[in-house]
Amino acid sequence: MAVKRRAETMEENRSKLVAAARKAFAEKGFAAASMDELTASVGLTRGALYHNFGDKQGLLAAVVAQLDGEMAQRARERAADILSPWDRLLAEGIAYIEMALDAEVQRIVLLDGPAFLGDPSRWPSQNACLQATREAVSEMVRDGIMNPVDVEAAARLLNGAALNAALWVAASEDPQATLPKVIDAFTQLASGLRAR
Q: pTM of the entire structure?
């Protein structure tokens, strides 16, 4: 019983720290967020942070993974009612790019994430997105919806295009003005893979 309670407490502490970090990183940015303030805001110590995440960067990785997972889920939900596999794939990519306008996503995932965690294509959460794209591309190539193409190459290029488009929107001086240009180019680029 004590072991179960300890595991529950550890999970509660992890959840508290991720929620507090998400708020702090969104408001202040990763570099300016104080770990002492963050841990105190949820009644924990720095020791709890280090025990659960190793360091501040480990905490950022957990927050990015949570947010990136939510982004993928929101993109899937937005495209769920679309019957055409091709249109669904495009809608998911566009939905992902549009999330670059969300202040929390923009700050944490698209600006601070790459700056402090490195290449987003190497993040575990991006690998999950890549796998979903790989499966969709494989089915569309098999069904003749996409041109015969190397599935891995096409999946990586589509994922990379959506990710880089979102990064560009987030970093641009005028994200609202950049977004339509990016979506148009992404759609045209992806459409080159579609069978005629």
A: 0.88
